[in-house]
Structures are given as structure tokens and as C-alpha cells.
Amino acid sequence: MSQENVALVRKIQERWLAGEHARDLISEEIEYVNPSYAVEAGVKRGRRTLGAIREIYPDFRFEPEEYRDAGDQVVVIGVARGTSPSGVKAQWRQGYVWTVRDGRAVRFSWFSDPAEALEAAGLAD
Helix and strand tally (H, E) in the chain? Predict the structure, then answer.
């Protein structure tokens, strides 16, 4: 079933890149996990939390480069880009860990370092 999980997460990312919603693929009560070094570390719940990055970068865009199967988890590595409200442009690599259950994303964790995402999903080299 893990290839189905990769396909689901890929579909979420593709829709977002196309400017479309993915509500039907994401649990209404999804857990959004900020790492300990984030300004607002910890767990939040609900689909609306996924848009929090747009408060900092209104034009935020994440471009996936790699999807890694980790069973009920899927790691996505890619490049994030955005422009702050003050006009500062930023670009950085990130890693995401999505957890999928019963055909829907139920947990999303982000990491500033892709290696942290791989480690969190048990895929570290």
C-alpha cells in the first residue's frame, strides 16, 4: 500500500503547485508538526494550519524533487521559495514527512534540512 501513499502525497503536491486545493486528500484534523527549532514549535491540528507559511511568504511555493516511500510515511525533498511581505526573496531546501492512513494524509511534519526528514522516517543513510 505504500506506493499508493506516495501517489496520494504526489497528488497533493501537484495540486498545490497548480494552485488547486487538496482537501479531499487531507484529513480535516491533520496534525501539523513544527520542529523544535521553529518559531512556533509543536503540533497544531486542522487543514488550515497547512497554510500558515503564507503568513510569512504570501507567494510560498514548494517544488518537490524526490519522493521516498517509508510505509505509512512519505518523505518529500524539494526546494521552497517565497517572498516576504517586505520584498525579501528566499529559497531553501526542505524535507517533509507525510503520514497517510486510510487513503488520507493525517500528519505533516516539515524540516529545514532534508536529512532530518529522512531520519524522522527511518530512511537515514
Answer: 2, 6
Contact present, 99 and 105 (Cβ < 8 Å): yes
Q: Domain tally for the chain?
A: 1
**Cα 67 to Cα 64: distance, rounded to the nearest angstrom:** 8
Residue pair 75/57 in contact by the 8 Å Cβ criterion? no
- Residue 91 DSSP SS3: strand
Q: Which CATH number fits the domain that encloses residue 65? A: 3.10.450.50
Which DSSP symbol is given to 75?
A: E
Strand 104-111 versus strand 26-34 pairing type: parallel
Banded model confidence at residue 55, pLDDT cuts 50, 70, 90: confident
Compute the distance between CA of residue 105 and CA of residue 116 in angstroms, rounded to an integer: 20
Report the distance separating Cα 75 and Cα 54, nearest Å. 22
For range 74-97, the mean pLDDT: 95
pLDDT score, position 40: 83
